[in-house]
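task queued by scheduler; priority normal; single chain, no ligands, no partner chains; default sampling; output format set to structure tokens
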Amino acid sequence: MFEALNQYAGWLIAAFAGGAFTAWLARNDKAEERWAWWKLAALATLAALLALALFGWPFGLTGLWIESAIATAVAFVAGGLVGAALWKTRISPSPLWRVGAASAAIIWFLSNLVSAGPWEALFKRSVNDVVAKNGADPSEVGVAGRDVVVGPAAAQGEARAKLIADLRAAPSVRRVAEGDVARWAPRG
């Protein structure tokens, strides 16, 4: 997981700075009275994303996008709290906080467009090293996000069990599944 965060570090710093800057902009803004539903909606969304990530769903690149959404939201909130403490800003559903949250969403989206593909390629190389070490067929092992799919012809018997155990122990691997590599981890 931390290797993935390293790939997104610059984007997370931008989200943190966006939160702090939003707090600075909103320091003199009038609060609106709709705080209860706004806070509840934000907390429910974050809780749903956390539940998805903790249970490892969905599989593949979408799971990586969800994990990066959580990291971006946490970085933005942390920046907002630091900025609110520095400039004595009230965190409320004012228009500026909504604009700041929208900017964090844009940062998240762009970070995945730019970083997810290269990170997945880097991850694929480290998975291929494990596959080569185990003498398995690399065409029968696919990568999707931080997940690995082991096809039926990758290895047999004890060699297969060792391959799967080594893949599960590899850094950054979220989940190892057995199945159709073409379906879950398309080549290309």
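post-processing summary
- The chain has a mean pLDDT of 87.
- Residues 121-181 form one domain.
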